[in-house]
Amino acid sequence: MDDAVIQTDGLTKQYGRILAVDGLSLHVPRGRIFGLLGPNGSGKTTLMSMLLGLVRPTAGSFTLFGKPPEKGELERQLHRIGAIIETPAFYPYLSGRNNLAYFQGISGRGHPGELDEVLDQVGLGGRGGDKFQTYSLGMKQRLGLAYSLLGDPELLVLDEPTNGMDPAGMAEVRELIRSLGGENRTVILSSHLLNEVEQVCDSVAILSHGRLIAQGEVAELLREQGQAQVRIRTTDDAKAREILTALAWVDSVSAANGYLVAGVAPDRSWEITAALSRNQVYVAEMTPVQMSLEQYFLDITEGESV
Questions:
Q1: pLDDT value for 224
Q2: CA distance 148 to 151
Q3: Starting at the edge strand that comes first in sequence, how are the strands of the sheet with 33-37 ordered?
Q4: pLDDT, tens digit, for every residue of 211-256?
Q5: DSSP alpha helices (H): ranges in the chain?
Q6: Minimum mean pLDDT range among 95-99, 145-149, 151-155, 286-290
Q7: Exposed, middle or buried by CB within 10 Å (0-12, 13-18, 19+), for 88?
Q8: How many beta carbons lie within 10 A of that of residue 299, not counting itself?
Q9: CA 200 to chain CA mean position, Å
Q10: The pLDDT of residue 300 is above 80
Q11: Structure confidence at residue 226 (pLDDT)
């Protein structure tokens, strides 16, 4: 497909008896933030390592920017990619800025003038002169993200980029990642944090035990899987529950956290309001219930062997 930055076909990696990645066929569209979601051990890091030429596939194939990673071509492709795989490794006695300068020099990516720019971009502008060994785990992750941005890559591959960060730092990095995806750049975000992927990603692939369970637009997947529901608060919830339960087109009615939850499509909200008002019960609040990515993941992986 012409808009695919990455396309895999039956990609497989086996280590002895362990099948780390099992026949994976993925389509990563250009200019999007694409989430790889799954628990630790689901094959996310192995997949990214194969895409970056760090691990040789056992079977299957893939393309980067529309071309297979053949000898000579892979080097050109890698110059268009910035990546963090697992915990970033830097020289402990060099400053953050000097680490970036060193790796920039040996990789041939970017130019000296952008070092301060990327440090500011990831929130290390005031600590770039400090030695790497003084950095917290969260700061080390930020420096890794700064390195991945050198050379303004077309594709960013980020493996657990918020690992070790406090909640404020995680929120800042999520906001940064959201700003990085767009027409000229694709971001692949690997995470086991479902809430993080839901907040950041446009599309997602869900992996379990090395296999692809689902892929597609986040909003579309949730809409397809989730039962249509609305949350209601009325002037008389007990009576409202009796009325709604008696309606044939309402699938279910339950009480939760001070609300009634009715199994009905949100576009029928006006019919709920009409049915209740005919019985002198009036709606004070009504909102659609959106299935979370966490619930979706639990639903589609139910029964998966551990």
A1: 59
A2: 8
A3: 81-84, 155-159, 186-191, 33-37, 203-208, 211-217
A4: 998 888 877 776 655 557 788 999 999 999 999 999 988 888 988 8
A5: 44-51, 73-78, 96-107, 115-121, 137-149, 167-180, 194-200, 218-225, 237-245, 269-277, 293-300
A6: 286-290
A7: buried
A8: 11
A9: 6
A10: no
A11: 54
Q: Which two tokens stand for residue 165?
A: 């960060």
What pTM value is reported for the model?
A: 0.75
Q: Which residue has the tokens 């986040």?
A: 218
Q: Are 82 and 155 in contact (CB under 8 A)?
A: yes
Specify whether the CB–CB gap between 247 and 275 falls below 8 A.
Answer: yes
Q: Is 117 exposed, middle or buried (0-12, 13-18, 19+ CB in 10 A)?
A: middle
Instruction: Provide the pLDDT for residue 160.
Output: 85
Structural domains in the chain, CATH included, are 1-80+202-226+291-306 (3.40.50.300), 227-289 (3.30.70.980)
Tokens of 25: 């066929």
Question: Which amino acid type is present at position 244?
Answer: L
First to last CA, the chain: 34
Sign of CA dihedral 296, 299, 303, 306: positive
pLDDT at residue 278 is higher than 60: yes
DSSP H/E element including 81: strand 81-84
Q: Which two tokens stand for residue 259?
A: 């609300």
CA distance 139 to 29: 30
For residue 227, give both structure tokens. Answer: 């039962």
- 162-182 pLDDT per residue, tens: 877 888 888 888 888 888 887
